[in-house]
Every structure is written in structure tokens, then in C-alpha cells.
Amino acid sequence: MTVQTRVKERAEEQAITMTAEQQAAIRMLANDLHRLNHTVMKAVDAGVSVELIRSARHHNEGNWGDLMIPVIVTQSA
Fold it and tell me: Residue 41, class by beta-carbon neighbours within 10 Å (0-12 exposed, 13-18 middle, 19+ buried)?
């Protein structure tokens, strides 16, 4: 089953009012999130549960971003 997350498309839609540098950063983030989502699905298909939780929040001049870590759970055989 293929899940369509539209991460890249949504990021591009939101980037209309951003500077070129901001748009480049958002494109990179969207691409990385797309790869992460694909990798999470592969891990689930391999038999593990994956939860992403915020480990910290990065701040800079009034802006912020969540930093994530995975919590992996396997089922006992």
C-alpha cells in the first residue's frame, strides 16, 4: 500500500511568500521528510513500530523547529 503524504507539494505551496534561501531550506526539508516517511514505512513493514518524538526544540531569532528522535518497539516472538 502506497501512502501519499504530499509533503513536497504542501511545502512548495507554503513557500510562495518565502525568500529564495527559505524556499531552498524548505525543499530540502520536504525531500528529507519524504525519505524519512518512506523509511518509517519500510521499518514497519519489516516488523517494528516507530514513534517519532520531540527531543528538543531549536530556537533562533523568534523561529523554532522541533528536533526528533525515534522510539522503536519490536514485538516479542
Answer: middle
State pLDDT tens for residues 20-29: 999 899 889 9
Q: Is 66 helix (H, G, I), strand (E, B) or coil?
A: strand
C-beta atoms surrounding 29 within 10 Å: 14
Q: In terms of DSSP H, where are the helices of the chain?
A: 7-14, 20-45
Confidence (pTM): 0.73
Residues in CB range of 57: below 8 A, 6 or more apart: 64, 65, 66, 67
The β-bridge partners of 64 are: 59
